Amino acid sequence: MKRWTGWQNWVVVAAGAYTLLAMTWTNALGYSNGYMMTGGIALIVIGAVNLAAPGMPVAEWIQVAVAALVVASPWMGSFASGMHGVAWNTWIPGVVALVASAMAIQPAMKSYREHHPVGSV
């Protein structure tokens, strides 16, 4: 894998940007802005890390965990039932990031194995 070419990680960065920007057109409810801002920034950062340094399966798994937390954030922040528009603007990019992250694990593992063969130190 070459740097800055993993489409899956670009999708994660875009999902993070959408989550972050969605705060501007949704009405805040409870801690929704904090969760959306934190989740959006976290997706952008981990996506950029995976773009800059591809072939690290651990970082891809961290990206999966961050995306899952973004999906869960409306329930964690208690804004899932109050205003569904705010929650949907978190769930949809979170699920997109989760699927893209899961799709990036296999190529990262393949790249890692190519550069770190078994038995080499």
From TrEMBL:
Keyword Membrane part of the UniProt annotation: yes
SPW repeat-containing integral membrane domain ranges (all copies): 7-101
Transmembrane segments: 7-28, 34-53, 60-80, 86-105
Domain of life: Bacteria
Keywords recorded for this protein, A-Z: Membrane, Transmembrane, Transmembrane helix
Keyword presence, Ion transport: no
Leader peptide range in chain numbering: none
Pfam families in UniProt: SPW
InterPro entries: SPW
Name used for this protein in its record: SPW repeat-containing integral membrane domain-containing protein
Lineage: Bacteria, Bacillati, Actinomycetota, Actinomycetes, Micrococcales
